[in-house]
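Input chain follows. Return structure tokens only.
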Amino acid sequence: MSSIVSIFLVLFLWWFLTGIILYIAKRLDFGDSKTRFTVVLVTLPLFFCAWYFYFNCLDGMSYSEIFCSFLASLFIWGWVELTFLTGVVAGIPLLEKQEIDRDTERERFINGFRSIALNECFLLSCLFIMTVLSIGAENNFGLTTFLILYVARVSAKLNLFFGVPYINLHFLTAPLKHIATFCRVAPIGFFFISSTITLCLTFLFLAGFTYASDPMSDIQFGYLLLSTLAGLAVLEHLFMALPIKDATLWNWMLPNIRKSKEVITTVETKSNFPKESKNELR
């Protein structure tokens, strides 16, 4: 498979799978918690099938087995993300102000973490199981895929907490609308710069392995998938610092949420920030 085709394949999977998950989650804003749970339960076989293919591709290094492990990790990740966006597996009850000595920043951090705690534990459990299964296995591309996704997710969420210039709240679903209060609009800071540089170095590291591998080999194909994914992680971070309306990539395929019971609107942000300010739903 040519390099150009491989890159476009990853780009398509990133766009398509993200769109499908967002469509399902936003569509469920028209329903109730029981409907959300039912949809997650109905799609559970996809989650188990992904684990089956992940396990069965660990000892193979052919084109098909590398791609299958890569795709299996994406499906495992995607299903867990669906449980998060639907609120089925998201967080735990938030603390009251008096329980944490009125420390505003500490309160925001603790409650921000509690709002996603269960899903983070779910992801870490998946990562742990993948790591254990991959011990001694030849094909670790699926594990590395999941690891890149997880590191990029944690980095993005911490950046939203510390503050970035542009925050897109349009894709928040009704069960997660409270998460917007833990985000902050602010100029880019040290953490954003350091985390983005780290992701860039990861991309360059994987791209170097891609270049050093034998042309058109299965190893090169695997590293090309990983380096493209790392490049997308860098791009998603840049979306938080640049006035680029990335939401337009998926807005056209999402249902009209204005008809739902709980409408979430996007917070308008400006390129010039004289001082830090917190996002809020309105």
